[in-house]
């Protein structure tokens, strides 16, 4: 039995295309062994395209992408483009239009990879970041721009509909993990309206998951625990902005942004979910084969898992783990790392 | 020549009164040696008062506090009070009404104090957190609360007026420090309206401070550098919410929240500024003499500095540094630490 999946590929900016190329190598190698094929369509989106045509994500391309089973994305953003144009017009447009409300970001410490923490302990948690609401909605504006009377607002929008679905997803994930612990992170002592909606929702959904232990932390306190006791976390559920901040910090303490993968999931299988490294486009090292493609490769594993290709997902993860365990610190090119992992994944 | 200062004291909740008592001990000892006196008025505000009377900060008491030269605050917040009531009704009411727009939070690693980081390097920076705008303005609301159709918003308000004054203050501080470096932290690739106001303001004010090197980081990237290379920072200027998050993280990497002091400054001397530890009320250890009063004591040093009592400020800092250097790890009570620092400060 062979199965064919339609994969939309958006390499994007900076190191995006380089790391994506390696993730595709690994995907191809694994799919060959698993009787799967990926039909790839590349979409030329990002800074170069914007400079050429002014487009960020035209409707026809969005519709074309929608016809795929999944999206593999490299990285978006370039210093030659005004900040926000590509982020809002391309990356966030994909997340919002395709209603990727579960932004999943696992963090784990590989014993062989150094952590900047002296005693990190055994770290293995996942952040479930809400992906379609909060301060990311683009619901603000500015008046009298460039004058001393300028006023700029940003509105965080939070709905019971949006919060409940992601909270329920996080509880289900916590329930399926051995430790069964869920920590809500917010700032409900200051952002009382949004914060209380989140808190009440967690308290309500908790009654459906009596085996999951529930905890609450203010976002500032959560950053403290991430450096003093990261092993305490199992599943963290949080809003879009807090999730953005916590997952970069989580990546840093678990050996760096070169290893941090993410999934932007819409559990409705008729809509493609999107898989991307947590890291950005790193324009300073772009095109130099200096980027670590591991995060992109692990994102491809999350992609397989989401498509139900559990064998492929485990094969990629095992290949990455084996590669990481043998890292000596000697520098390798992006392609060398990709090749090494590909070889293991195919073997 | 003796000088008398009127000091408003708000011990507050949890460990607040305990740590404040030690800060006052030190202040009294130092002032005796410097020919200064502090006339203290205690204000009974916080959880107990709220339970008794329902008051958080009545107008007459706010006016009475306004008549003082400075405010020394312990900590606010208690689990028996709905989250936000005391924070918004007391702590933030003081910061906002007294227009404490410079929330100053120094971070430095004392060589004798452990950091959770394996190789922190020489860390000595200060966060200038905006204190009167951003998502803290309380400018949101909720509709259809408790129903599946609930919507909750939080509005971040940012003005050229508010941003420029704190940015100018931060540049002046950077200019006066040996490294002369200023890093703006925001999220201008997503929060484009507020973020661009901040960025344009920093770029404009930078022309007045040509000797200060300017840098920009997204808040998520800033958390990474705080754990991988905190020594790179000199002065960080940022908004109210990002400043809240970054300063807890900064405290964590520099040996913990027990040492982190803060000043809520209104540079207009006719209005009292407010000095408080960064830590919260820690109700779990309240009344047990387990809290470290060092952050409160260092906040008293910031208070002296603000009042122009530079000798007193240096004496307190020196006493704290000497105490910290001789810490053996053997537990001491709150009062024992306070007494030891008092003795050194008076000596
Ligand atoms: C590039 C940026 C818009 C994005 C975000 O803020 O979500 C990134 O930081 C991330 O975490 O995926
Ligand atoms: C208690 C809380 C309202 C406060 C804040 O968020 O500003 C605290 O976390 C701080 O940093 O001073």
TrEMBL record, chains A, B:
<keyword id="KW-0479">Metal-binding</keyword>
<feature type="binding site">
    <location>
        <position position="244"/>
    </location>
    <ligand>
        <name>Mg(2+)</name>
    </ligand>
</feature>
<dbReference type="InterPro" id="IPR024084">
    <property type="entry name" value="IsoPropMal-DH-like_dom"/>
</dbReference>
<keyword id="KW-0432">Leucine biosynthesis</keyword>
<feature type="binding site">
    <location>
        <position position="105"/>
    </location>
    <ligand>
        <name>substrate</name>
    </ligand>
</feature>
<keyword id="KW-0560">Oxidoreductase</keyword>
<keyword id="KW-0464">Manganese</keyword>
<comment type="function">
    <text>Catalyzes the oxidation of 3-carboxy-2-hydroxy-4-methylpentanoate (3-isopropylmalate) to 3-carboxy-4-methyl-2-oxopentanoate. The product decarboxylates to 4-methyl-2 oxopentanoate.</text>
</comment>
<comment type="subunit">
    <text>Homodimer.</text>
</comment>
<feature type="binding site">
    <location>
        <position position="220"/>
    </location>
    <ligand>
        <name>Mg(2+)</name>
    </ligand>
</feature>
<dbReference type="InterPro" id="IPR050501">
    <property type="entry name" value="ICDH/IPMDH"/>
</dbReference>
<keyword id="KW-0100">Branched-chain amino acid biosynthesis</keyword>
<feature type="binding site">
    <location>
        <position position="220"/>
    </location>
    <ligand>
        <name>substrate</name>
    </ligand>
</feature>
<feature type="binding site">
    <location>
        <position position="248"/>
    </location>
    <ligand>
        <name>Mg(2+)</name>
    </ligand>
</feature>
<dbReference type="GO" id="GO:0003862">
    <property type="term" value="F:3-isopropylmalate dehydrogenase activity"/>
</dbReference>
<feature type="binding site">
    <location>
        <begin position="280"/>
        <end position="292"/>
    </location>
    <ligand>
        <name>NAD(+)</name>
    </ligand>
</feature>
<keyword id="KW-0963">Cytoplasm</keyword>
<feature type="site" description="Important for catalysis">
    <location>
        <position position="187"/>
    </location>
</feature>
<keyword id="KW-0460">Magnesium</keyword>
<protein>
    <recommendedName>
        <fullName>3-isopropylmalate dehydrogenase</fullName>
        <ecNumber>1.1.1.85</ecNumber>
    </recommendedName>
</protein>
<keyword id="KW-0520">NAD</keyword>
<comment type="similarity">
    <text>Belongs to the isocitrate and isopropylmalate dehydrogenases family. LeuB type 2 subfamily.</text>
</comment>
<feature type="domain" description="Isopropylmalate dehydrogenase-like">
    <location>
        <begin position="6"/>
        <end position="341"/>
    </location>
</feature>
<keyword id="KW-0028">Amino-acid biosynthesis</keyword>
<dbReference type="Pfam" id="PF00180">
    <property type="entry name" value="Iso_dh"/>
</dbReference>
<comment type="pathway">
    <text>Amino-acid biosynthesis; L-leucine biosynthesis; L-leucine from 3-methyl-2-oxobutanoate: step 3/4.</text>
</comment>
<dbReference type="InterPro" id="IPR019818">
    <property type="entry name" value="IsoCit/isopropylmalate_DH_CS"/>
</dbReference>
<feature type="binding site">
    <location>
        <position position="95"/>
    </location>
    <ligand>
        <name>substrate</name>
    </ligand>
</feature>
<feature type="binding site">
    <location>
        <position position="129"/>
    </location>
    <ligand>
        <name>substrate</name>
    </ligand>
</feature>
<dbReference type="InterPro" id="IPR023698">
    <property type="entry name" value="LeuB_actb"/>
</dbReference>
<feature type="site" description="Important for catalysis">
    <location>
        <position position="136"/>
    </location>
</feature>
């Amino acid at each position: 039995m062979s199965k064919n999946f339609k994969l939309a590929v958006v390499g994007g900016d900076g190191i995006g295309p380089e790391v994506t190329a390696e993730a595709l190598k690994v995907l191809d190698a694994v799919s060959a062994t698993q009787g799967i094929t990926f039909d790839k369509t590349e979409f030329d989106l990002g800074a170069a395209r914007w400079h050429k045509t002014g487009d960020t994500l035209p409707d026809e391309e969005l519709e074309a992408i929608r016809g795929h089973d999944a999206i593999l994305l490299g990285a978006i953003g370039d210093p030659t483009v005004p900040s926000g144009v590509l982020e809002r017009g391309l990356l966030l447009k994909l997340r919002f239009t395709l209603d990727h409300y579960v932004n999943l970001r696992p963090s784990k410490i590989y014993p062989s990879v150094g952590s900047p923490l002296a005693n990190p302990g055994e770290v293995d948690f996942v952040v479930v970041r809400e992906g379609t609401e909060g301060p990311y909605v683009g619901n603000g504006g500015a008046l009298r721009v460039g004058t001393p009377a300028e006023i700029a607002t940003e509105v965080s929008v939070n709905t019971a509909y949006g919060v409940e679905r992601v909270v329920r997803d996080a509880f289900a994930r916590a329930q399926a993990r051995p430790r069964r612990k869920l920590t809500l992170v917010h700032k409900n002592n200051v952002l009382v309206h949004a914060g209380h909606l989140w808190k009440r929702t967690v308290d309500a959904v908790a009654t459906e998951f009596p085996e999951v232990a529930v905890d609450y932390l203010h976002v500032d306190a959560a950053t403290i625990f991430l450096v003093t006791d990261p092993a305490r976390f199992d599943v963290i559920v949080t809003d879009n902005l807090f999730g953005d901040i916590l997952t970069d910090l989580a990546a840093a303490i678990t050996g760096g942004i070169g290893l941090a993968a993410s999934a932007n999931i819409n559990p409705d299988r008729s809509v493609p979910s999107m898989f991307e490294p947590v890291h950005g486009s790193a324009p300073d090292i772009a095109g130099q084969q200096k980027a670590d493609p591991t995060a992109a490769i692990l994102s491809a594993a999350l992609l397989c898992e989401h498509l139900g290709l559990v064998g492929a997902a485990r094969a990629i993860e095992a290949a990455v783990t084996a590669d990481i365990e043998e890292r000596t610190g000697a520098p390798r090119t992006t392609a060398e790392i990709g090749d090494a992992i590909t070889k293991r994944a195919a073997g």
